[in-house]
Amino acid sequence: MYDLLWFAIFPYVCIFIAIVGIVWRYINDPFSYSTLSSQFLETRQLFWGSVAWHYGILAVLTMHFVGFLLPESIFWWNMVPMRLYIMEITGFSLGLLTLMGLLMLIVRRITRRRIRKVTSPMDIALLIVLLVQVATGLWIALFYRWGSSWYVDYAVPYLWSILKLSPDVVWIKNLPMMVHIHILNAFFMVLLIPFTRLVHFLAIPIKFVWRSHQVVRWNQRKPILGPSRLEKRT
């Protein structure tokens, strides 16, 4: 019942709520599809945290998607021990970069009074969930070696079974508890998409690729003259 509830039913509950929530939010409040940036309140710490976070998480997600879509390529790469070491070290380093950026963003939220004023409970919940996801990923990479290989051996077939509407929990039943937490937390993040800033990734400005160039003109105003000599004398 544990496996059935959490790994066969819970994922679909999260996906269903996410889809309904995304559609509802787009219909009722389409202009909220943004990160609600607080850059005008504080820039420097946001810049360094955001750069580390985005570059790190995008690289980590890319590695996950490559393993999900092209598992044979991961098997081929890991056939050579040196390439396997490179894969493991690279993944762990990118995870550390992601964690560093996330921690900087969390510290910024805590220590900057003006940022705290605009921080909602859902922002806090999202940061906690992201921290759990990154921390469990690093834990797995550190204590359960060769994760890139068993990821495509066990986790990828399970995820494909979810996508095919035929969940097969046998693939991940015997994986360590930390891996279970990592997987469940990922589905929970999917559930949070329509209720948090995560929704902004759905507003990718694709139209900028084919949109015509925007012409920007500056209208230079005449400088405001000081008081005339006559006014100074009077």
UniProtKB/TrEMBL annotation:
The NarG-like domain extends over 4-218
- Name a biological process GO annotation: nitrate assimilation
Query: Where would you find this protein in the cell?
Result: Cell membrane
Database matches in Gene3D superfamilies: Transmembrane di-heme cytochromes, Chain C (1.20.950.20)
Superkingdom: Bacteria
Q: How does it sit in the membrane?
A: Multi-pass membrane protein
Q: Which residues bind heme b?
A: H54, H64, H182, H200
Q: What is its main location?
A: membrane
Signal sequence span is none
Name by which UniProt lists this protein: NarG-like domain-containing protein
The upper taxonomy is:
Bacteria, Pseudomonadati, Pseudomonadota, Gammaproteobacteria, Thiotrichales
